Amino acid sequence: VLLVESGGGLVQPGDSLRLSCAASGFTLFDYAMSWVRQAPGKGLEWIACIQRDHGTNILDNLKGRFTIARDNDKNTFYLQLNSLKPEDTAVYYCTKHRGAWCKTYDEEYRGQGTQVTVAS
């Protein structure tokens, strides 16, 4: 299993980014996938999950700004970040769940992460 994130960078407040997670070594279609992040000096924070049936869960205080999507044909899933704020600065990781549904603490693999820095 290999998960490779991309799309991070240095942006200004209010900008948007789309993070991608390219998956290999398994069929994305069969699994739930999540995004988590780690801000400087803080622990991992779960952000969003998308299930096999494309059902989604997003952290309440990020709803309306962040969305998650998947493209099973490309074995890739995405996190769209809009109206970015300095407090969104973090390393963003994609994770694979053990099964098809977004169960808590069910992730078994994580990528190397992509840095998102929001600063004016």
Count the DSSP helices. Answer: 0
Fraction of residues in H or I helices:
under 10%
Strand and helix order: EEEEEEEEEEE
Tertiary shape: globular
**Overall mean pLDDT score?**
96
Note down, in words, how this protein is organized.
The protein has 120 residues and is mostly beta strands. It is 0% helix and 51% strand. The protein has no helices and 11 strands. The chain has strands at residues 2-6, 9-11, 17-24, 33-38, 44-50, 56-58, 66-71, 76-81, 90-97, 107-110, 114-118. The strands form 2 sheets. Strands 2, 4, 5, 6, 9, 10 and 11 form a 7-stranded mixed beta sheet that branches. A 4-stranded antiparallel beta sheet has the order 1-3-8-7, with no helix packed on it. The relative contact order is 0.32.
Brief description of this entry?
It is built from no helices and 11 strands. By secondary structure, the protein is mainly β. The mean pLDDT is 96.
Which features does this protein show?
single chain; 120 residues; mainly beta; seven-stranded mixed beta sheet; four-stranded antiparallel beta sheet
Topology:
Elements: E1 2-6, E2 9-11, E3 17-24, E4 33-38, E5 44-50, E6 56-58, E7 66-71, E8 76-81, E9 90-97, E10 107-110, E11 114-118
Parallel strand pairs: 2-11
Antiparallel strand pairs: 1-3, 3-8, 4-5, 4-9, 5-6, 7-8, 9-10, 9-11
